[in-house]
Amino acid sequence: MSTPYPFTAIVGQDDLRLGLLLNAVSPAVGGVLVRGEKGTAKSTAVRALAALMPQVSVVPGCRFSCDPVSPDPACPDGPHEDVSGVSRPARTVELPVGASEDRLVGALDIERALSEGVKAFEPGLLADAHRGILYVDEVNLLHDHLVDLLLDAAAMGASYVEREGVSVRHAARFLLVGTMNPEEGELRPQLLDRFGLTVEVAASRETDQRVEVVRRRLAYDDDPAAFAARWADEEARLRARIVAARALLPEVRLGDKALRQIAATCAAFEVDGMRADIVMARTATALAAWAGRTDVLAEDVRQAALLALPHRRRRNPFDAPGLDEDKLDDTLEENGGGDEDPEPDGPGDGGGDGGGGGLPPRGDGPDTPPPPADSADDTPGRPESEPSGPAPSVPGQGGEQQPVRAGEPFRTKMLSVPGLGEGAAGRRSRARTEHGRTTGARRPRGALTKLHLAATVRAAAPHQRARGRSGRGLVVRRDDLRQATREGREGNLVLFVVDASGSMAARQRMGAVKGAVLSLLMDAYQRRDKVGLVTFRGRDAELALPPTSSVDAAAARLETLPTGGRTPVAAGLLKAHDVLRVERLRDPSRRALLVVVTDGRATGGPDPVALAARAARLHAAEGTASVVVDCESGPVRLGLAASLAGELGGTAVTLDELRAESIAGLVKDVRGAGPGNSDRRAA
Question: pLDDT digits over 69-79, tens only?
Fold first, then answer.
């Protein structure tokens, strides 16, 4: 096993280290979600935490890590009676983003269960993580069906495997730790709420800190064992402090004043439900124990709010999480915070025996705190006001205008890709999935995951006499098993091709267009799609945002989109064609939906309208589902956008119709069948 990077050798990242340590002191806090840009030691810190966790006592030979003091009475390896325990290190179990359902919850041998009545169960990752840490890197990319299983286990403290009347249950209580880069998309609100704390991390802009990070990393890479040995004493001291804080935790008193501050703070920030109040109370108690105190102070409540509330407050999908600290201070002051000890300047000022934000020693490295998370630009958000002053001119883009704010978003009609796909789970188009309604049965390819009981019985019934059946049981063989085929919903690649030319540049008109695209982006966010953004104006088109799961990044690019110049519709469609060709190679199963936002008035070059029609027919020939949002307005309308939709083999819809409830369906037919689509259209 490789030597992990020492926790105490991590430079800076005060909030990250504090959030992890509070969970080590009190696992009841509920885990931590680490959000931040790539290369900020998120995964390194989580993996290093395992070495600091106190050892756990388990029943020897139990695959489910039962506590010998209070073993699980329903343990599949039980019953455990009068068994002396053995100690082992707490486990850190990593859940890969692409894991199967069976790998997470365990696999039940259906064939033996039907033919022999035996519950042959192979534990999964939830069993391995019981009484330890379950770590999910890139948790925002986790498939929805795995998220559902995690939510169930986190809510009930147990994992259930139910198949055709055969049931297995085992305890599954774990510390859930997730890391994510917000640029790649956000988490489902239900899973987000299950994380007790959230911290934002960003790379330090301080030169000395960056130098020290590189120096330590190079030393670790050269000789991990020697580097870890240098930090062994610091690690031992920090481990002892965690043990002491755990021992002190039951003695910490959470007074009525602190409880009123917690309740008032949660009410002031309009968080949903009561979980925030409970998590804040547990966090404030853990902070006091970590600081070596038995009373919870206002500074503990303040720090608990900064860790427990940012991801729970009500906000729009494209708003970055965070708290108004002035409002927080006022709320605490109004509810009795003024007659307690003065609050420290920051979360790292408390040290080991004073403030609620005490942090571990960090050796001889620099101790300059990193900049606040809200100073980094890794989480795009909508600007508070329009940019002042004119936008810089671009050669060849005559008449460029200042970017216009998007209009108010609205709920749009759902756009979907026709046919039956097999892409990643989502909420847009019909697809064959592991979850959903059962539509048929087939022979299993590889391991059986979803048994179709009726089809299996029908396949085995004609052979019972030849197989010598004599009792009441059914003689089932491998060839009789049938896999259930199910239909659900998939996420798609929604590629926006937005006209940013001079004909679209009128202030009110472009604001309405941006509002419509923003509305479609919000819809894509809710339906778990990938999105991309191509813009065209002047003489060419550009890929403003490569396909990504970060819908808020697309919203930010849309806000700053300049306008002006000619209307090279053909260039925009050809650029979209190149983007989709590359994406089909990267992810053949993810089907695309092309959304072209234009008035169709192509200009520039010889016969631009005919050139745009030829480019559109390339998409039609490959069976790309498409919608043209017709932005033409005024008393004279040429109908060019509708003609373009006809060449694409798609549908045209006006801005007004996009929000109308009376439209039955916007994407109806696609001419041709592109690669990977031919076998799905008939369904």
Answer: 888 888 888 78
